[in-house]
Design a protein that fits this description.
By secondary structure, the protein is of the alpha+beta class. The chain contains 8 helices and 7 strands. The strands form 3 sheets. Strands 3-4-5 form a 3-stranded antiparallel β-sheet, covered by helices on one side.
């Protein structure tokens, strides 16, 4: 007969093994439910993308100081990583990062990018061209909504400034979450979507 104590120990051991085998995925704040995301997507203006005239990443001041010596990038690395150690300049010197976009795990911060879920250029052509610099800075450093996430660097680079009609995370199991994040950010900031983008988002939400 297995005692309750022994049974509890076995269960604890199994949980520990499962936790080690299943890396925690980065989870930005404010990801809505599927139903809420669908409602928010339905509330977005649908129109063709605007011009890129005048666009520059410099018009979205990013990686500003958040606390002490820690800027936005370093803050997200600590939030999304496991066992992250930093030096006196707040640079990550150890830890691991699981990228839900592709299912890869990295042990060097140099292999990780902080993705703007809605790219700065995509925001520009869907309404941000008319914002103040202050609002663009808020958007580029937003830690309160699902706009920033630590992912594999070359995956982020392959995304570039593409919308979901042109690029989706390689891990299709993450499409639902990605669509919910994208939609929440556009809804929060009153940005528009083009018709192909909306169709792609609806298709991704169908996977939820």
């Amino acid at each position: 007969m297995v005692t309750k104590t022994r049974a509890g120990a076995v269960l604890a051991a199994l949980i520990a093994v499962f936790a080690l085998a299943t890396p925690a995925a980065a989870t930005p704040p404010g990801i809505p439910s599927e139903a809420t995301a669908r409602a928010e997507l339905g509330g977005l203006a649908v129109r063709a993308d605007g011009s890129m005239t005048g666009y520059s990443r410099d018009k979205f001041p990013h990686w500003v100081i958040i606390s002490g010596a820690c800027d936005t990038r370093e803050t997200v690395l600590k939030r999304d990583g496991s066992g992250v150690g930093t030096n006196s300049s707040c640079q990550a010197t150890s830890g691991s990062w699981y990228s839900p976009y592709d299912g890869a795990t990295w042990s060097a911060a140099s292999d990780v990018d902080i993705d703007h879920v809605v790219p700065l250029a995509a925001a520009w052509r869907s309404g941000a061209s008319g914002w103040t610099t202050t609002k663009r800075q808020q958007f580029a450093n937003d830690l309160s909504h699902p706009q920033l996430i630590a992912v594999t660097d070359n995956v982020n680079q392959s995304k570039g400034d593409k919308g979901p009609e042109s690029w989706k995370p390689p891990a299709s199991g993450y499409w639902c979450t990605y669509a919910k994040m994208w939609t929440r950010v556009k809804y929060t900031y009153g940005l528009s979507v083009n018709s192909s983008e909306k169709s792609a988002l609806l298709g991704m939400l169908d996977r939820c």
